[in-house]
Amino acid sequence: MKVIQHVNHDIKNNEFKTIPTNNSSKVWGRSVYVYSYCIEYSQRLNQKELLKNIKNSFNFVNHNSDYSYNFVLSDFYVKDKMVFLDIAYTSNEATLEYLQDLAKIKKAPKE
């Protein structure tokens, strides 16, 4: 996948290794196209800089692709020398509704 290749390049990861993770689309059902990816890395990462670079990668791929849809980063975190990404493919209404629901949850006041 082009987005993952760009993210890997941004990490400057010489030992690119994606780790199979859960397919979020199976959890959400309704043809929600969200997939989880994990990239193992070996050096220290600045998470803010990494997130900025990942967003730039998404912008680059979305702007320069022939796809009729965009890729959206729906979740991101770093843990135990692994970068975890959930990537939504905005190819249908169910996925767009899922992203809208996520945005509402993120804006909701924390108790």
Topology:
Layout: H1 2-11, H2 24-28, E1 34-40, H3 47-64, E2 71-79, E3 82-89, H4 93-107
Antiparallel strand pairs: 1-3, 2-3
Helix pairs in contact: 1-3
Q: What attributes characterize this protein structure?
A:
alpha+beta, 3 strands, about 110 residues, 4 helices, three-stranded antiparallel beta sheet, globular
Which secondary-structure class do the elements indicate?
alpha+beta
**Total tally of structural domains:** 1
The biggest sheet, with number of strands, parallel, antiparallel or mixed sense and barrel status, is:
3 strands, antiparallel
Oligomer: single chain
Description:
The protein has 4 helices and 3 strands. It is α+β, with helices and mostly antiparallel strands and 111 residues long. It has a single domain, classed as Threonyl-tRNA Synthetase, Chain A, domain 2. Strands 1-3-2 form a 3-stranded antiparallel β-sheet, sandwiched between helices. A hairpin with a 2-residue loop joins β2 and β3. The chain is globular, with a radius of gyration of 14 Å. The mean pLDDT is 79.
Task: Give the structure's gist in a few sentences.
The protein is of the alpha+beta class and 111 residues long.
